[in-house]
């Protein structure tokens, strides 16, 4: 529910800009291409799971092809966040981040078209593509004693007391020591499109994402590492057509 209060303002702003677009576009939904930008929320991510870019092109009256790129942060379902006495928030037991870069190609089929100046367009889509996983160290600040702290990747053999953890590392700290994993991704989704004008589009994509890598990703060393990740997601899109 917390995510809704952040996403709704984007929806209201998009509807406002659509309402102020050129009036001659009203009721005309025929288009040849589109460019969409999205914010993703998924069951393997945080408040904001990631960001998306999608470019689509008409094949015929109801079929489209599209190319896309998703960039998301993938979490282990067993991650638990704690607060320190200083008010910092960290994840105990986590040793690595997984950032996934997913280029893909897909097809989209329009199931229900909009009526003139009203209604919602509904379509179904599927996409596949390669995945590039960036495995970055999860750095914490750990109190060795009352006077000394160290900043290093979490190690369950060394950092056994969560009460000695002062907080997480700086943003992107340790990214230079990242490892790379290769894999593939696939998704199936239903897309709901709102708006009145051809030149602007506001939509919501609800779907299922499956992703696998060629090796196991050790996000939390004390639990079983995963090679396959799956999630349910929704992506709010806003973009332009012509």
- Put simply, the count of helices is 1
Question: How many strands in all?
Answer: 13
Helix and strand content put the structural class at mainly beta
User: Which stretches are low in confidence, meaning pLDDT under 50 for 5 or more residues running?
Assistant: 1-27
Cα-to-Cα separation, first versus last residue: 35 Å
| Inertia-based shape | elongated
Strand content: over 45%
Strand order of the largest sheet: 1-2-3-6-7-11-12-13
Please tell me the overall pLDDT: 85
What quaternary form is this? single chain
Descriptive account of the structure:
It contains one helix and 13 strands. With 242 residues, it is mostly beta strands. The longest helix has 18 residues, at 2-19. It has an eight-stranded antiparallel β-barrel.
């Amino acid at each position: 529910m917390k995510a809704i209060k952040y996403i709704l303002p984007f929806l209201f702003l998009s509807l406002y800009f659509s309402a102020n677009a050129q009036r001659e576009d009203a009721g005309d939904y025929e288009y040849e291409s589109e460019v969409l930008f999205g914010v993703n929320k998924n069951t393997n991510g945080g408040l904001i799971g990631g960001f998306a870019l999608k470019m689509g092109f008409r094949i015929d009256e109801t079929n489209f092809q599209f190319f896309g790129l998703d960039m998301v942060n993938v979490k282990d379902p067993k991650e638990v966040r704690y607060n320190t006495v200083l008010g910092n928030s960290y994840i105990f037991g986590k040793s690595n981040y997984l950032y996934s870069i997913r280029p893909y190609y897909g097809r989209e089929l329009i199931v229900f078209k909009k009526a003139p100046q009203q209604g919602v367009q509904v379509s179904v889509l599927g996409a596949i593509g390669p995945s590039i996983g960036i495995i970055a160290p999860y750095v914490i600040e750990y109190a060795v004693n009352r006077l000394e702290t160290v900043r290093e990747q979490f190690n369950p053999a060394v950092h056994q007391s969560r009460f000695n953890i002062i907080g997480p590392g700086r943003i992107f700290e340790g990214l230079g020591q990242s490892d790379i994993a290769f894999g593939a991704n696939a998704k199936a989704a239903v897309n709901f499109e709102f708006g009145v004008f051809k030149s602007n589009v506001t939509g919501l994509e609800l779907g299922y994402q499956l992703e696998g890598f060629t090796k196991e990703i050790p996000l939390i060393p004390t639990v079983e590492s995963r090679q396959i990740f799956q999630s349910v997601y929704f992506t709010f899109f806003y973009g332009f057509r012509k």
